[in-house]
Structures are given as C-alpha cells and as structure tokens.
Amino acid sequence: MKGPEGMKQKKELILQIKDIHKSFGGKEVLRGISFDVYKGETKVIIGPSGMGKSTLLRCINQLTFPDQGTIWLRDQEVTHHNLREINLFRQKIGMVFQDFNLFDHLDAVRNVEIALIKVKGMGKKEARKKAMHELKKVGLGKQASLYPAQLSGGQKQRVSIARALAMDPEVMLFDEPTSALDPELIGEVLGVMQKLAREGMTMVVITHEMGFARSVADEIIFLEKGKLLESGPPEILFYQPKYERTRRFLFKLTELYGDLNGKK
Amino acid sequence: MVQVMENFIAVYQALPFLLQGIITTLGLVLSALFLGFIIGVPLSVGQVFGSSWTKKFIGIYIWFFRGLPILVLLFLFYYGLFNMIGLNLSAFVAAALVLGLRSSAYQAQIFRGSIQSLGQGQLLAAQSLGMSKGKAIWNIVLPQALRMSIPGWSNEYPAMLTESAVTYAIGVMEVLTRGNFIASRTYRPMPIYLTCAIIFLILSYSGMKILHILEEKVRIPGFEE
C-alpha cells in the first residue's frame, strides 16, 4: 500500500515499546503497553480521549518518564538515562504537537533552523539552507519569513512538521496533528504526512482521521483504558474487529468523521 | 510682581545646580533598574523552574525586599550591613545597590508572570528537538517572556524614579537633595520644589516614551496591540 517495497521486507526494527506503565496522581493511565515499530512503517493509535494516547507518545521521547517499562530506539535503550543522553535521543525522535507549539518570536525559517544551530551546532548558512529545504518540502517556501501569528493553522502545523524533519529524525511522532485545525485546513497537513509516509518515514500517529489511517497505516492500535485492546492492519481492524468495543468506537468515529474511505 | 521676579531669579540661579542632580538621579535609577534586571531574570527563572528549595529561598528574598520600607532598607544596608562587613561604599553606590536589590524582587515577579503565561508547550517543543532545559529557557522562553514583560516592566521606571528621591535621607546628591539644599538657604521652597517636581515629571515622561518605542520595536509581527 505504501513506501518503497524493499524497506518493508528488511523489517528493520526502529522503536520498541515494552510494557510501559504510567500513573498520574494514583490513576494508572498506561497499564503495560508494548509494540514494535519497523522502519518505514506508519502506526496509527486510536482510542477514546483521556486514555493515555498522548502520554504514551510523550513517554517515547521522554517528555514524560514512564513509571515502568522500557523504550528502545534501534538497539539503544532510551529510558533510564541522564538528561544529556535523553537530549541526544530526542533529536532522533521528531514530535509534532496538537497545538503546534511554534516558537512565536521566530519567523517560520528560524523556527526550523534554531535547533539545527543551537542543538546540532550547525553553521548559520548551512542551517538556513537546510531549513529552507524542509519548508519547501512542506510547501511553505514562500512563507519562510512569516511569523507564526501570520500563518494559518494548517501552515503552522506544516512548519512544525518541517521543524521536526530538519533534525533528520529516525521516527516521527504525531500527537493529534489535525485536531486543532479548521476542517478545510486538515487536508493540507494530512497531505504532507501522506507524502512522508510514502517516502518511507517511520511514523507513529495519534489521529481520528480514519480516511488517513486507512490509506497510510500499516497497523492500527486501539488503546482502551490504558491497555492495547486490539491491533492490526486497517483492512482487518476496520472491517473485522475482534472486540465489540473496537467496533463501537470505530462506528462512533465514522459517524463523526465520515466513513472509512475518507469521504465526509 | 516683585515676588514673582525674585522667585524667577532664585530658580534661574539654582537651575544649573539642580540640573546636575539629573545625572545623579538618572544614574541611580538606571543602575538600579539594570541591577534589578540582571538579578530579577534569574530569580524569575528559578521561581518557575527551580527546585522547591530554590523556590523557597527566592520567595524569602522577594518577601524581604518587598516587605520593608525603602528607608529601612537604606539605613539597614548603608549604616548597618555595609559598615559591618567593612564595605566603605559611597552613598550613591549604596543607594544604587539597595534600590537595585529591591527592584530585582519586583522585576522577578513581573518576569515570572510572563513566563508562566507562556505555557508549557513552548518548553516541551524545544525539548522535543533535543534542547536542554537551559537552552530552551534561554533561546525560547526568555525572548518571549521578556517581550511580554515590557508593559508591566514599564511601571518599574517611574516607580524607581520617584523612589530614588528617598535616597536624600542618606545624602545622595540627586535632584531633591539639591533642591532641599537650596530651598533651605533661599527660603523659597515653593519655586524650588516646583522646579524639582517639573524635572521629575519630564524625566518620567521621556522615559515612558523611550520604553514605548522599545515595545513597538520588539513587537512580534502578527500580534495585535
């Protein structure tokens, strides 16, 4: 369905999530989640809100520390490291937030290049070139000198994707990247993500855009009450889910967001 | 009529002496604001991001400097503490230090408010790119928080300007001290003190103008008033 075919056969393991537990104030939001992400693969995580999807994503790049369990990036353990090493891992794990979190005091191109300069220690000229390249890739070459407050929501999210891509991450995490967008702006962001998936980027995406999930996901993971209830390729999960709970949830989503073919 | 003329002449004769006080007053205000800034910024960062002990310590510092009348602080430091530890400071330097420390407590609160209103997202985004917390605070949080602080911070200038006159009590040769000196010799308090008042008003007006220009200059494009 996607990606250069060769990549899928090699099955290079990029990310391993092993038995992640996390509690907040006595409430256990993640109760032992495990799954693997292979190179070039797109995993889509769905599930009711408030059930730890974002927390799981934040555990992966250690913005939240899991109480128990380990995360592995290739053959290196990400968890249980000091902050310096965690900062190195975070460079390889790109993250896109629901509410963009662009740096409001910097124009688009400087948003993209700042981490190249301050984190990777790249020269200013080289960083600018790379940043412009990434902006063009998300279709915003002409908007490089605009500030976040001058961009539309969809443009902001595309800048934030470019910002994460500039670090040349091994894997990209998307935390409901289109939930804060007006309906007519969702398409441009999904389009960029689709393109990334086609080019072989490894991605973990939390989204309720079922059309996107169906066309791009290699596997869909259904999280419920802090547990991985069910997972499988979209053809299976959408049409022959094992659990009634999954079926009901998918039914609710299609009611809200249109049918599984992405039509509204 | 003769009265008015005599008053004018008194002011005219006193003016050069009074105007020299502007240098002292402005020097005092600017060094206190500067000191308050370079101490206030780290204090505010510590208050938001520091450990609980750091926060407690800064809380006490701020409570101390905001909780005491300036005169008490001036006497305590100038006649007391500085003497005790063998620091032989001029009245001007002592006053600048005391006003600066006091201002740092107020400025820290202004900056803290801005940092907190910025929200966690900016820090998270910076960290997700691999920035250390320190780099994120320096490159991402502070540039935004300090800009947002300018309107609130603008209060510090006129506040400091008016407070600076209190240093008269330890003999700093600022505008009021000079005015007082002349008024008590010429027996013309009204015209002399009025002149002092006008000098203060002009200083406060021009300072506010400059701050306003600064605010315009560093405004982030796309943000409305």
Structural description of this entry:
The complex is a heterodimer of chains A (264) and B (225). By secondary structure, chain A is of the alpha/beta class. Chain A has a domain at 5-99 and 171-257: 3-Layer(aba) Sandwich (Rossmann fold), CATH 3.40.50.300. Chain A is built from 10 helices and 10 strands. In chain A, strands 6-7-8-3-9-10 form a 6-stranded mixed β-sheet, sandwiched between helices. Chain A has a 4-stranded antiparallel β-sheet with strand order 2-1-4-5, with helices on one face. The longest helix of chain A has 16 residues, at 183-198. The longest helix of chain B is centred in the N-terminal third of the chain and has 48 residues, at 2-49. Chain A binds chain B through residues 61, 63, 83-84, 87-88, 90-91, 93-95, 97, 99, 101-105, 107, 114-115, 118-119, 146-150, 160, 163-164, 167, and chain B through 121-122, 124-133, 135, 139-140, 143-144, 147, 220-223.
Please state roughly what percent of the residues of chain A sit in beta strands, choosing from under 5%, 5-15%, 15-25%, 25-35%, 35-45% or over 45%: 15-25%
Give the CATH architecture of chain B: Orthogonal Bundle
Poorly predicted spans of chain B: none
The gross shape of chain A turns out to be globular
Structural class of chain A: alpha/beta
CATH superfamily of chain B: MetI-like
Question: How many extended strands of chain B?
Answer: 0
Briefly summarize what is shown.
Chain A is of the alpha/beta class and 264 residues long.
